[in-house]
């Protein structure tokens, strides 16, 4: 049985403070929130059952069919995953004879409800549907989100969403604020990247006939919810129907993930590792016991600021050498280099190639194949390349801004929003990468004089970037 920690005992975190002045308040708050979440979850399930029964008795089953017809933009959809948004919307937003069924229920049965239940229903009725952008994630606990329309922010307690979300994801969601704790109650099953979500924001602003921050009262107004829902459905459909792009590596070669396997006698492993380390432009493993090698070449066709380019990697096991590249041309070149360097020690076994676009088409059909994580050497090189590239990027003319540099675009009200959207797309992509590979855009935003929500900072940097990597 674990020993109980006394309030005046040293805190187990090692801070040398008393437990009551260190971790105890945070742990107590977490337990209080956990208890409240469990209470509201059970209460909400009970009330939903009661409201649904009331609605069927009062209005018949046709009210739900009418809600479904209004909910879907084309009137034809049958996806159980939509219930997580359709259900709360049909109870708290869809008008039946002028009012949502939740209001009919509350008007007729409020005296039968406890004070807590009435308070919970009031909080549900105050919630609004909007496009909420993820700002920060604490996996397994919370998400900090910002409403792209009202600019309200919330710390949402949701274990599942915090495990599957990344920074700059945008969700169409309802957030209920109850006794100081915010939770999702109604989320559209598919999130959007920043650029696709912007089409929904634009549609909402057109409906409101105004720019800038929208009042919450306007977002709650009848019909505004359906504008957002239908715009979201159109954006999802457009994203899923969009032809997959032709992809290439930085040499311009068609992207084709290629793995070449070579066999060798077990006793030759040590000599193979030695010969690989002696090859030109090869980064050997820096960690004892690892056998990961990174192959480089000087310069980069697409990025003039890059001094070197990773063209492949190799892993040496007990009796196999696996070489991975991203094009047939690079694979052929690397195979010749390896066979010249290792001579008769290795024998080519087989080549496996995967078209990335086929992988993208199959996404969602089943578990995605596990990708080999980059070696520490590869991750370090990638970070160095990104730092060097984005170090020069603020002063490079961009076609997207008619030749303006990002620094110039940041200083113009006409292009600042477009620049922020571009950065949010970059940040969204980085957030989906392993942490060791991510570039921190906060430094770049600071230099450009842009806040995390796209506004102009008070004191933007005026000097060109001096960031460099050894």
What is the fold's blueprint, element by element?
Blueprint: H1 24-59, H2 62-71, H3 83-92, H4 101-109, H5 115-126, E1 129-138, E2 142-147, E3 153-157, H6 159-164, E4 170-178, E5 181-187, H7 194-208, H8 216-220, H9 224-241, E6 257-263, H10 269-278, E7 282-283, E8 292-298, E9 308-316, E10 320-325, H11 328-342, E11 347-354, H12 356-362, H13 376-392, H14 406-410, H15 413-431, H16 441-448
Antiparallel strand pairs: 1-2, 1-4, 2-3, 4-5, 6-10, 6-11, 7-8, 8-9, 9-10
Helix pairs in contact: 7-9
Radius of gyration: 28 Å
**Biggest sheet architecture:** 6 strands, antiparallel
Instruction: Please provide the count of β strands.
Output: 11
The average pLDDT is 85
In one word, what is the shape?
A: globular
What share of residues is helical? Answer: 40-55%
Biggest sheet strand order reads: 7-8-9-10-6-11
Order of helices and strands: HHHHHEEEHEEHHHEHEEEEHEHHHHH
Stretches where pLDDT falls below 50 for ≥5 residues?
Answer: 362-371, 463-470
- Provide a count of the helices: 16
Structural features, described:
This protein is an alpha+beta fold and 470 residues long. Helices cover 43% and strands 16% of the residues. It is built from 16 helices and eleven strands. Strands 7-8-9-10-6-11 form a six-stranded antiparallel sheet, sandwiched between helices. A five-stranded antiparallel sheet has the order 3-2-1-4-5. The longest helix has 36 residues, at 24-59. The chain is globular and about 85 Å long. Mean pLDDT is 85; it is low at 362-371 and 463-470.
């Amino acid at each position: 049985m674990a020993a109980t920690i006394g309030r005046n005992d040293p805190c187990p975190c090692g801070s040398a403070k008393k437990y009551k002045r260190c971790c105890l308040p945070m742990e107590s708050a977490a337990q209080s929130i956990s208890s409240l979440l469990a209470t509201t979850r059970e209460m909400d399930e009970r009330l939903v059952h009661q409201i649904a029964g009331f609605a069927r008795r009062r209005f018949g089953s046709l009210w739900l069919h009418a809600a479904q017809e209004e909910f879907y933009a084309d009137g034809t959809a049958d996806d159980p995953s939509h219930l997580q948004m359709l259900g709360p919307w049909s109870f708290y937003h869809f008008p039946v004879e002028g009012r949502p069924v939740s209001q009919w229920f509350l008007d007729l049965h409020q005296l039968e409800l406890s004070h807590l239940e009435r308070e919970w229903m009031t909080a549900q009725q105050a919630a609004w549907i909007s496009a909420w952008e993820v700002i920060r994630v604490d996996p397994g606990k919370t998400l900090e989100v910002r409403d792209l329309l009202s600019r309200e922010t919330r710390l949402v307690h949701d274990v599942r969403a915090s495990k599957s979300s990344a920074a700059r994801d945008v969700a169409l969601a309802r957030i209920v604020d109850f006794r100081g704790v915010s939770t999702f109650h109604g989320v559209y099953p598919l999130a959007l990247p920043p650029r696709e979500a912007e089409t929904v924001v634009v549609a909402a602003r057109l409906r409101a006939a105004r720019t800038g921050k929208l009042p919450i009262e306007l977002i709650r107004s009848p019909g505004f919810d359906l504008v957002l829902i239908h715009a979201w459905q159109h954006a999802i459909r457009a994203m899923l129907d969009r032809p997959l792009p032709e992809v290439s590596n930085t040499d311009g070669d068609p992207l084709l993930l290629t793995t070449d396997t070579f066999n060798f006698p077990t006793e030759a492993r040590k000599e193979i590792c030695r010969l690989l380390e002696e090859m030109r432009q090869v980064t050997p493993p820096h960690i004892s016991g690892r056998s990961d090698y990174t192959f480089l070449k000087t310069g980069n066709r697409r990025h003039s600021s890059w001094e070197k380019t990773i063209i492949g990697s190799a892993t040496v096991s007990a009796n196999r050498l696996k070489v991975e590249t991203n094009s047939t041309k690079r694979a052929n070149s690397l195979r010749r280099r390896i066979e010249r360097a290792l001579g008769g020690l290795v024998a080519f076994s087989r080549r496996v190639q995967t078209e990335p676009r086929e992988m993208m088409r199959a996404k969602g059909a089943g578990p995605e194949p596990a990708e080999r994580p980059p070696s520490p050497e590869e991750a370090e090189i990638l970070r160095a390349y990104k730092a060097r590239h984005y170090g020069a990027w603020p002063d490079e003319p961009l076609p997207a801004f008619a030749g303006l540099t990002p620094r110039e675009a940041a200083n113009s009200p006409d292009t600042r929003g477009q620049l922020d959207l571009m950065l949010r797309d970059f940040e969204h992509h980085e957030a989906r990468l392993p942490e060791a590979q991510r570039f921190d855009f906060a430094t770049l935003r600071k230099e450009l004089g842009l806040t995390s929500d796209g506004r102009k900072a008070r004191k933007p940097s005026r000097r060109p970037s001096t960031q460099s990597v050894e």
